[in-house]
Amino acid sequence: MLIGNFKETYADDEALFRTPASRAGLAVLLAAALVFPFVASDYLLYLADLVGIFAIAALGLNILTGYTGQISLGHAAFVGVGAYATAIAATRLGLPFWLSVPAGGLVACLAGAVVGLPSLRIKGLYLAIATLAAQVIFEWVFTNWTGVTGGIRGLNVEPAGLFGFAFDSDRRVYFLVFGLLALLAYGAANLFRTRVGRAFIAVRDRDISAELMGIDLFRTKIMAFMISSFYAGIAGGLWVYFARVVTPESFPLSLSIQFLAMIIVGGLGTIKGTLFGAVFVTLVPEGLRAVTQAATRLSPDAMSWLAPMKEIVFGAMIVGFLVFEPHGLAEIWSRVRRFFWLWPFPK
Amino acid sequence: MEGGTEPAPAPGAGDVILSIERLSLAFGGVQALAGVDLTVRRGSIAAIIGPNGAGKTSLLNCIAGFYRPQHGRIVFEGRDVTRVPAARRPALGLARTFQNIALFEGMTVLDNIKLGAHAHLETGVFGALAYGAGARAEEEALRDEVEREIIDFLEIEHLRNRSVGSLSYGLQKRVELARALAMRPRLLLLDEPIAGMNEEETEDMARFILDIQEERGVTVVLIEHDMGVVMDLCDRVTVLSFGERIADGTPAEVQADPDVVTAYLGTARVG
Ligand SMILES: Nc1ncnc2c1ncn2[C@@H]1O[C@H](COP(=O)(O)OP(=O)(O)OP(=O)(O)O)[C@@H](O)[C@H]1O
Ligand SMILES: [Mg+2]
C-alpha cells in the first residue's frame, strides 16, 4: 500500500518503476553492477558471470512455466542447443559474437517451437515427460552427432571480440553477460505490460476462458515456448564465450532441475524473483562448499560426512521455500519493502 | 423500458442481431438442445429461462462457440457463425460472462478487465518485448478506455489493484461483467448474472444491465432464474425445458403460458 503517493496520470501508473523510491533503487543497483567488475576478485567475477548466464536462462523458464503454466524439464537442453549453435556459427562460419549469440538464440527458439507442439494436447505431468524426452534426445545428439558437435571432446571457441577488444577474461565477459541480462530482463518485464504477456497468464490461470476471450491457445503456448527457449539459447551463447568450450555434459537434466529450483525459490511469475532465485541457487551451494572446505582444513576427516551435508542442506532449503514461502524470495522482498515503506507504522 | 425518456435508438435498432435456427446439441445420450429457435432484436434484452438442466448454458455456449452444435445454424449480424472458432468470436462483437465465475485468479482486477480487450489489440511479440511507441500508445489508450468506460461505470475504482481471488462473490461477478464490457461487445451473453447475490448487489447489477442496453445500445441475452428481475429487465423471454423451446414471448405472456407452468411443476427453483 503506497500511502500518500497519488499517481498523477494513468500513464505513470503503467510505468515499470512507479515510485521515486523504486527508481532510486534501480539507479543504485545499476551503479553497483557497473562498479562491481572493477573491485571484485577473479573468483567473484567468475561466480557473477555464472549467475548472470543462469539468470537469463531462468528468465526464459519463468516465462514458460511461471507465467504460462507450461512445465518444462528440458530447459538445459535449449541452453545447450543455443550453445552449440553459437559455437558452430563462430567456428565453422566465422561469425562474430554479436551474430553468433543471436543465432544461438534463434536456433534454440526454433527447437522450442518444435518441442512445444505437444503442449496443445497435453498438460502438466504429461508435458513434463514430453520435455524430459526432449532433454534426453538433445543430450544424445550433443554427444553422438560427432561431425557437428565434436562429440565428447566438444568445440573450442575463441574469445568474443569487438573492434579489437577481446572479451578474454571473466571480468570482461561480465559486461556482455550483464548487458544482455539487463536488456532481456527489461524485455521480459515489458512483455507482461501488454496483451501478449496477459494472454500467457490467462492461459496459465484458465485456458478455457482465455480461449473464449479471443486468445488462440496454440499460438500463445508455442509463442511462450519460443520466447523461453530464445532466452535459453542466448544464455547458451554466452556460456560459449564464458567457458570457451562446449561439451555435452554441460547441459544435463540436473541443470534443468536447477533452473526450476531458481524460479520456484525466486517466485513463479515474477521477473525480480527470477533474478533472486538465480543468485540463490547458484551461490548457496558455492557458499556451502566454502564452509565445508574451511571445516576440512580444521579437521581432515570431516570431509567424508560434510560433503553430503552440503547437498542435504541445499535440498532442505528448497523444501523450506516450498513449505513456508511458496511465493518465493520475491514475496519476502515485497514484505520487507512494505515494512520499510510504512515504517515507523508497520501493519 | 417502462417510463422515463425514450433512449436514442442504436443504429439499426430493431433489426435481428441474432437468429438461431433449429439448433441441436447432444452429449452422448443427453439431448441438451433439441431444435431450438431463437430470434433476438438489436437493442433488446432477452431472457432465457427454464428448469435446471434445461439447456440454457448449453445454448449460450453454442452462441459463444464453446460447444459445437450437431445441427442448426447461428446467424449473428447476418453472418453464419456456427463454425467460427470460439477464439475468433470476440472480434466479431460477442462477449459473455460465466455461470461459475471464470476470472483469471493470478491477475489483478485491472489486468482481468484489460484481458477482455485482447481481441481488439494489435501489439505483437516484438512490440511487446521492446514496449515501443506503438505498444505504449495502445496500452495507455486501453487504460484510459477501461478507466473511463468500465471502472467508473461499474463503480469498482477501489478494486483495480486487488487480486480477484480476494473479492466477494458479488464483486467477482461485477468484474466478470467489466471484463465482458472490455470485449466491446454488440451482443452480451450473461449466464445468471444475479444468482447468489444479495438484494443490494442485485439492484446494482440490474441497473448496470439496463444502462449497458440503454446507454450503449448493447443487446443483452441473459439467463436468469429470478422472475422478478426478468419481468423488470427483459423485453422477451424464451423458455427451455429438456432442451426444447416450450414458450417465447413477452414476460407477461410467458408467465401465463400453461406449458410453462407445467414445466416448472415439481421443480424447486421456479423461474
Ligand atoms: N460438457 C458437458 N458434457 C456432458 N453433458 C453436459 C455438458 N454440458 C451440459 N451437459 C448436459 O446438458 C444438459 C443441459 O445442461 P445446461 O448446463 O445447458 O443446463 P442449464 O439449463 O444451464 O442448467 P442450470 O440451470 O443448472 O444452469 C444437462 O443434462 C447437462 O448435464
Ligand atoms: Mg446453466
Brief overview:
The complex is a heterodimer of chains A (about 350) and B (about 270). Chain A is built from 15 helices and four strands.
Secondary structure layout plus pairing:
The complex is a heterodimer of chains A (347) and B (271).
Chain A: H1 10-13, H2 20-39, H3 42-67, H4 75-91, H5 97-116, H6 124-144, H7 146-149, E1 155-156, E2 160-162, E3 165-167, H8 170-191, H9 195-205, H10 207-212, H11 217-243, E4 245-246, H12 253-266, H13 271-298, H14 303-324, H15 328-342
Antiparallel strand pairs in A: 1-4, 2-3
Helix pairs in contact in A: 3-8, 3-9, 3-11, 3-12, 3-13, 4-5, 4-6, 4-11, 5-11, 8-11, 9-11, 12-13, 13-14, 13-15
Chain B: E1 16-27, E2 30-41, E3 45-49, H1 56-64, E4 71-76, E5 79-80, H2 89-92, E6 94-96, H3 109-116, H4 125-130, H5 133-151, H6 169-182, E7 187-191, H7 199-216, E8 219-223, H8 227-233, E9 236-241, E10 244-249, H9 251-256, H10 258-264
Parallel strand pairs in B: 3-8, 3-9, 6-7, 7-8
Antiparallel strand pairs in B: 1-2, 1-4, 4-5, 9-10
Bound molecules: adenosine-5'-triphosphate and magnesium ion.
The site of adenosine-5'-triphosphate has 12 residues of chain B, from β2 and α1.
